[in-house]
Amino acid sequence: MARTSLFHAGRAGLRSGMMRAGAAAVAVAAIMSLGGCGWGRTVAEKEALDATAASATSTTSCVDTSGSTIKVGFVNSLSGTMAISEKTVSDSLHMAVDEINADGGVLGKKIEVEQQDGKSEPATFAEKARTLIEKQCVAAVFGGWTSSSRKAMLPVFEEDNALLFYPLQYEGMEASPNIFYSGAAPNQQIVPALDYLKEKGYKKLFLVGSDYVFPQTANRVVKAYAEGNGMEVVGEEYTPMGSTDFTTIVNKLKFSGADAVVNTLNGDSNVAFFKEYKASGLTAESTPVISMSIAEEEVASIGVDNVDGQLTAWNYYQTLDSATNKTFVKNFKAKYGENRPTSDPMESAYTSVYLWKAMVEKAKSFDVDKVKAAADGVTFDAPEGKVTVDGKNHHIYKTSYIGKIGKDKLIHTVWKSDGPIKPDPYLTTYDWAKSLSAGATDSTSKSE
After folding, report:
1. pTM of the full predicted structure?
2. pLDDT digits over 351-360, tens only?
3. Across the strands, what pairs with 206?
4. How far is CA 155 from CA 45, 48, 388, in A?
5. Which neighbouring-strand residues pair with 111?
6. Is 144 helix (H, G, I), strand (E, B) or coil?
């Protein structure tokens, strides 16, 4: 599906309470009904927002910059099926704020945090985002995990012209002037993972994922890559979020002829999948699994005996050997406990707070439009390595790592890219992806 633009309509301002609730409900309904497709900005999402744009008034921010503090919002799933993954993101966000406050804050103001629980429900994320922006008057919001949660929040941020810093790797085919994506675009995670499998001689892939936006869309990328690179997808299965019955799926996998598995399951479904995988007699040596959403935090929950030797594709591991990362790991463990690992999503979230700080200081303002205008070229020496904001599409340059899970419950690098990879959320630079990126333009903040 070609990308459609809401950048100008998205600047529409505050509606009446009843109309906004209705617009949010329609937008979320469109997202959920098309969750199987989830291909970038859908026509239904566009129409749902355009239907209310005509009655828009000018946006008036309620952010208060007159005092000695500035508010930011965190929205993470502290309950529900995604809490297994998102609690650590909340922790790392709080750590970043504490460090910044200890160093004097932002533009001389200490940061005050407003925390909201997304409860693992896209509609709740949209509701809590609106609360943070309109009632708690935050200067920026950090959070979200699933693509469904991000898509549910996206119209809220565009309507209110507010900022969301989204920390997760995701399926791409999206760019918003009101979202900064500090996680990987598909060419910084999915493509390197497939390049690695191809290099190692794996040709028959089985795809398993949760039944929502990221897995469905990511697997379109996988199938297009496979077709263009002499590989074959021999099975593709999805299961509802939170599902714990993988008997049928693993049985199909076992007899599919696959020599590798691409896993886009999210949350605690991974626990049940890998237990069934192991019980069936499959092994990392016979049929390796490369996972897009399992980090160090999840390894402990799944049980290292169930995932020892399996592969992951990320942009950060706790084991990265750099002074910056060693300090980061030391500080996180000192704050939250020696038994707590660090991971890609929480490192990306931590990094996003520092990127916002750098943008604000470059802009010398908390004003959203000024911050966006200042974003291009902002850098941060993150635990994952140096990252740089691409002001054109609001993604960041990131180094890619393929890792193997060890018996120590940590993930160890077996391959890395030569350096930070330029973000290409629409995969416009790949010949095999032409059918995916048809009609896409990379114009996030330039099109305003």
Report:
1. 0.85
2. 999 999 999 9
3. 235, 261
4. 9, 10, 26
5. 70
6. coil
Task: Please list, in sequence order, all residues whose beta carbon lies within 8 angstroms of the beta carbon of residue 404, skipping any fewer than 6 positions away.
Answer: 309, 310, 311, 312, 411, 412, 414
Write the pLDDT tens digit of every residue in 83-123.
988 999 999 999 999 999 999 999 999 999 999 999 999 99
Task: Give the C-alpha separation, 149 to 267, whole Å.
Answer: 14
Burial string for 254-269 (b: 16+ CB within 10 Å, else e) reads: bebebbbbbbbbbbbb
Beta carbons within 8 Å of 61's beta carbon, 6+ residues apart: 137, 161, 162, 367, 368
Q: Is 378 exposed, middle or buried (0-12, 13-18, 19+ CB in 10 A)?
A: buried
Residue 316 has φ and ψ, to the nearest 5°, of: -160, 140
Question: What is the rounded distance in angstroms from the CA atom of residue 183 to the CA atom of residue 323?
Answer: 22
The tokens describing 33, both together, are: 């009904």
- The alpha carbon dihedral of 134, 135, 138, 142 has a sign of negative
Tokens (6 digits) for 65: 């910059």
Measured CA to CA, the distance from residue 229 to residue 198 in angstroms comes to: 8
Q: Which residues on adjacent β-strands are paired with residue 113?
A: 72
Q: Give 234 or 8, the one with higher predicted confidence.
A: 234
DSSP 421: B
**Pairing relation of β-strands 395-397 and 110-117?**
unpaired
Q: Are 426 and 3 in contact (CB under 8 A)?
A: yes
CA distance 377 to 276: 46
Tell me how far apart the alpha carbons of residues 372 and 256 are, in angstroms, rounded to a whole number: 48
Residue type, position 166, single letter: Y
DSSP result, 293-308: S--HHHHHHH-HHHHT
Half-sphere exposure of 353 (CA within 13 A, CB side): 29
